[in-house]
């Protein structure tokens, strides 16, 4: 309905988008990691809203064409339509009003080489687990010191020298929430239970 909207339709979009704090919270979660598919309980956990509020806001965002949904088994997944008429502007607003760690998370979420990301407890160091042959070690982003390790090296060190990653896995935060990645099984087998950062689905 709004995908190729004129000025009046864009006014309607903006009025609808900013009509409630609950909708703003849902939109923020979705726009910081727009490549993911989300189901309702993930959005509920990330926003702290009731499931009814989440359902209402997701339905409203689908009707506005910012999201589309697909059914998979008993679950409904919601995806951001990155072709939405004001997607770039909305994402830019979400990033400008986000905390530095969330802006970093948003950048990492769009980087196809990054599989997992962990923020150390002091909040200044980040560990990236990247696809093999695609790491960029020692980069700095918005005041964070970023350390990168390839998947194969991460799995090997997690088995041989697990303390190497304890600054991130004990008391640290999961920045991306990609718990379906096979690497999470290795982390759990090593005895670690890393909390998701607030707002991560």
Provide an overview of this structure.
The chain is an alpha+beta fold. It has two domains: 90 residues, Arc Repressor Mutant, subunit A; 97 residues, no CATH class. The strands form two sheets. The protein has a six-stranded mixed beta sheet. The protein has a three-stranded antiparallel beta sheet with strand order 1-3-2. Strand 2 and strand 3 form a beta hairpin. Helix 2 packs across helix 4, helix 2 packs across helix 5 and helix 3 crosses helix 4.
Walk me through the topology.
Layout: H1 7-17, H2 21-32, E1 37-39, H3 40-47, H4 51-63, E2 67-72, E3 75-80, H5 87-96, H6 100-109, E4 114-119, E5 125-130, E6 140-141, E7 144-150, H7 151-160, H8 166-169, E8 173-174, H9 182-189, E9 195-196
Parallel strand pairs: 5-7, 8-9
Antiparallel strand pairs: 1-3, 2-3, 4-5, 4-8, 6-7
Approximate strand percentage: 15-25%
Q: pLDDT under 50 segments (min length 5)?
A: 1-6
- Count up the helices: 9
Helix percent reads: 40-55%
- The average pLDDT score comes to 88
Strand order of the largest sheet: 6-7-5-4-8-9
Q: What gap, in angstroms, lies between the N and C termini? A: 27 Å
Q: For the report, how would you describe the main beta sheet?
A: 6 strands, mixed
Into how many domains do the coordinates divide? 2
Structure classification: alpha+beta
Question: What overall geometry do the principal axes of the alpha carbons give?
Answer: globular
């Amino acid at each position: 309905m709004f995908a190729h909207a004129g000025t009046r339709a864009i006014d309607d979009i903006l009025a609808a988008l900013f009509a409630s704090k609950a909708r703003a919270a849902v939109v923020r979660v979705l726009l910081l990691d727009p490549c993911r598919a989300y189901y309702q309980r993930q959005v509920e956990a990330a926003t702290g809203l009731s499931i009814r509020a989440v359902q209402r806001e997701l339905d409203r965002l689908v009707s506005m064409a910012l999201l589309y949904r697909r059914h998979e088994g008993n679950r409904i997944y919601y995806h951001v339509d990155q072709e939405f008429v004001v997607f770039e502007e909305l994402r830019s607003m979400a990033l400008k009003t986000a905390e530095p760690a969330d802006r970093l998370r948003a950048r990492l979420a769009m980087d196809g080489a990054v599989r997992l990301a962990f923020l150390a407890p002091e909040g200044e160091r980040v560990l990236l687990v990247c696809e093999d042959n695609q790491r960029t070690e020692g980069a700095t982003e918005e005041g964070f010191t970023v350390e990168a390790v390839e998947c194969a090296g991460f799995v090997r060190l997690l088995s041989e020298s697990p303390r190497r990653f304890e600054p991130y896995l004990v008391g640290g935060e999961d920045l991306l929430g990609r718990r379906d990645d096979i690497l999470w099984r290795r982390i759990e087998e090593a005895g670690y239970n890393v909390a998701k950062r607030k707002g991560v689905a």
